[in-house]
Write a structure and sequence with these properties.
Blueprint lengths: L3 H28 L6 H22 L19 H15 L6 H6 L5 H32 L8 H26 L1 H4 L8 H20 L7 H4 L7 H21 L6 H19 L4 H32 L1
Helix pairs in contact: 1-3, 1-6, 1-8, 1-10, 2-6, 2-8, 3-12, 5-10, 5-11, 6-10, 10-11, 11-12
């Protein structure tokens, strides 16, 4: 039987993770498919979500976190543990793309594990920024993303985008489901699994219904992200970077940092190739970086509060 605070934390974590981090994987998908009914997009994303949860549950003996909580033992959840996702949910409503990994898992992790999470997340930011900068520097030599896709090829790009988004959504979930499962038993019963799956699908539906919410602004304000071709390319690059980091080790990391790093490198590359002044792009990049640093600072404060309460 799950304790009251664990259940409270589980619901808040599900809501905050889906609403805050969905923009990373589904933001470009929503931005470039505005003409498609929201419930169709929701149905496609829900199919991948359910499949991913079931795969992890069977493959990892009842654990839906893909083994990413191996170094974070299950403990009795207190009210101050549930405080973390509550703060995250509040920040999300203001459109701040903070790291759910730092805010949620940091209050459960030891100091050593928290340090490893920070190092891996910073490394992920750097890798994403460098890879995306190099990739878009080369790509922009052959492709002008501001030019619309020829109508004869748009349907092929549309299919490619749905496939790429599905792959990215699966890869992202394999990282961030740990941020929700940390409040749950490590080996879930079938009934518990069914309940948490229904909850996540319902929350996902709300995100599609409101078209990503305020947090979606971080995607919309970037260059050509509402174009199907650009959205497909962004999702593909992001998915492979996450897959590489997933295979590195089982230490949880901030996918938000990786996503912001990717957009940072892409914007700088586009500005460089188009001979735009970097100072026009720098404020956008700096604003995103300051937001994720704000989340890190809040995480450290929460860790200190939990240590004082424990």
């Amino acid at each position: 039987m799950i304790e009251m605070w664990a259940l409270y934390g589980l619901v808040l974590a599900g809501a905050s993770v889906i609403s805050n981090d969905a923009v990373q994987t589904l933001g470009t998908f929503m931005a470039s498919n505005k003409k498609t009914a929201w419930w169709k997009l929701w149905g496609a994303a829900s199919t991948v979500l359910i499949s991913t949860v079931l795969y992890s549950w069977f493959a990892y003996n009842g654990d839906i976190s893909f083994g990413r909580l191996d170094k974070i033992p299950h403990i009795q959840v207190e009210w101050y543990h549930a405080l973390a996702p509550a703060v995250l949910l509040m920040l999300t409503r203001f459109g701040i793309p903070v790291s759910t990994t730092f805010l949620v898992l940091s209050v459960f992790a030891s100091t050593v594990v928290f340090e490893k999470m920070m190092v891996k997340s910073m490394l992920g930011y750097a890798i994403a920024a460098v890879v995306s900068y190099g990739f878009w520097m080369i790509l922009s030599k052959f492709l002008d993303e501001k030019k619309k896709v020829d109508s004869n090829y748009e349907k092929y790009w549309r299919v490619a985008q749905w496939c790429t988004t599905s792959f990215l959504w699966f890869t992202w979930l394999s990282h961030d489901l740990a941020n929700i499962a940390v409040f749950a038993p490590r080996q879930m019963s079938p009934e518990f699994l069914a309940g948490i799956t229904v909850m996540l699908v319902g929350m996902l539906g709300f995100i599609f219904y409101e078209q990503g919410g305020k947090i979606q602004q971080i995607v919309i304000e970037k260059s050509t992200t509402s174009y199907v071709r650009s959205a497909t390319i962004i999702d593909g690059v992001y998915a492979f970077i996450l897959l590489y980091l997933k295979q590195m080790n089982n230490i949880p990391m901030s996918t938000t940092w990786v996503f912001v790093g990717l957009l940072c490198g892409r914007e700088l590359a586009i500005a460089t190739r188009k001979n735009k002044k970097i100072k026009k792009v720098f404020p956008i990049v700096l604003k995103d970086f300051m937001k994720i640093m704000m989340g890190l600072c809040i995480s450290v404060v929460l860790v200190l509060i939990v240590q004082a309460m424990s």
